[in-house]
Protein 1
Amino acid sequence: MEHSKLILEACGFRLGYRVPFHLVYCVVFVLELLLTLLSPLVKINLPTSISMLNYINHNYSYRRDRAAQELDYHPLFTYQQAKDHSTQYYSKMKT
């Protein structure tokens, strides 16, 4: 949840209460469908999308020691650097 909260706050959303994911997903899906049907007449961009909802709702975690052992992987950034870069990137998406 921490990652989702960082991304949402970086995009300018205020978090005060929780709304069930399935409800938000259905609302955004219907809005995207309506805008697709209206696209020949008017071009409107939503501040979010189904793919963004799916992304922020997933927890992506990997075992760094296993990746280092099996793939000879070593991260380019520390956790804090990656978090800072992600927050900065998503804060630019709100415009």
Protein 2
Amino acid sequence: MHVDALRQCFLQPCSTACDGAASGSCRSDALTLVLGGVVLFNPFGTMEALTILIGLSLVYDGISDLVLIHRLSRAFREAERRGDVIETEGWSRDDE
């Protein structure tokens, strides 16, 4: 029965086969099925690919953090140079 629903979602236009939410669900079910088959039949290659993907994600995260820090520090320096920074004296609720 589940295979028939997948076939219906992929072979017919989404508007006639499934309503909007079910269409996305059908596609994600099919993707999960395909990826599960890949993991089942090639577990070591999958682990290597997953490790590479995690490594690339961490490298991207580090680079984007460095770019963000650089842009923020440049914006703060520019704001101080223009005089847009307002110095105030604050207090903490712990001081009460």
Protein 3
Amino acid sequence: MSSLIIKEYAATAVGSNGESMVQLAEPAAIKQAAVTFNNQSAAFTHSWIQVQADAAFRVAFGTNPVSGDLTGEFVLPANTVFTFRVQPGHKLFVNT
């Protein structure tokens, strides 16, 4: 069964224009988890995540996301890292 790797990161600095910057190149994530497709993740504790799956996938975010929330979401390709800003306490649901 396909799975999605989730790595959580915290904002690290403020840029020259006052924008938040994230640890995109930091090799060690604050927290890492794997979620099999057709399942929900645990609640996030940080504001940024990176995800990568071994098959094409769609994700939905929220307090209790389910498969019905995937309607209209983009299909993201396998083996590619995607970065999302998330709300701590929210979760993601992943499926094909």
